Amino acid sequence: MTSEAVPAQETLGYEQARDELIEVVRRLEAGGTSLEESLALWERGEELAKVCRRWLEGARARLDAALAEEAAQDEDGED
């Protein structure tokens, strides 16, 4: 798996990004890479972390919206 394997875009699923990020971290922690490769891995990890963060923020927003809708329905039903 190279750092250029898959572009870190919205099309990359959360699980894919998370799994690749885990692999990037593993490779960085293992050492034995050149400075250039380590920097490329670090940059890839940053991209993947952003993708994961966007997915999690989106999930949180959807959950908050669903909870707000449920609360509004509960309030309407109590009138």
TrEMBL record:
Which Pfam families does the record match to this protein?
A: Exonuc_VII_S (PF02609)
Q: Which InterPro entries match?
A: Exonuc_VII_S, Exonuc_VII_ssu_sf
Name the chemical reaction catalysed here.
Exonucleolytic cleavage in either 5'- to 3'- or 3'- to 5'-direction to yield nucleoside 5'-phosphates
Subcellular localization is given as:
Cytoplasm
For this UniProt record, give its keywords in alphabetical order, as a comma-separated list.
Answer: Cytoplasm, Exonuclease, Hydrolase, Nuclease
The domain of life is Bacteria
Q: For this protein, what is the EC number?
A: 3.1.11.6
Q: Does the record carry Nucleotide-binding as a key word?
A: no
Q: Which family does it belong to?
A: Belongs to the XseB family.
HAMAP family to which the protein is assigned, alphabetical = Exonuc_7_S (MF_00337)
Q: What's this chain's function? A: Bidirectionally degrades single-stranded DNA into large acid-insoluble oligonucleotides, which are then degraded further into small acid-soluble oligonucleotides.
Q: What is its quaternary makeup?
A: Heterooligomer composed of large and small subunits.
Name listed for the protein in its UniProt record = Exodeoxyribonuclease 7 small subunit
Native source species: Streptomyces similanensis
Encoding gene, per UniProt annotation: xseB
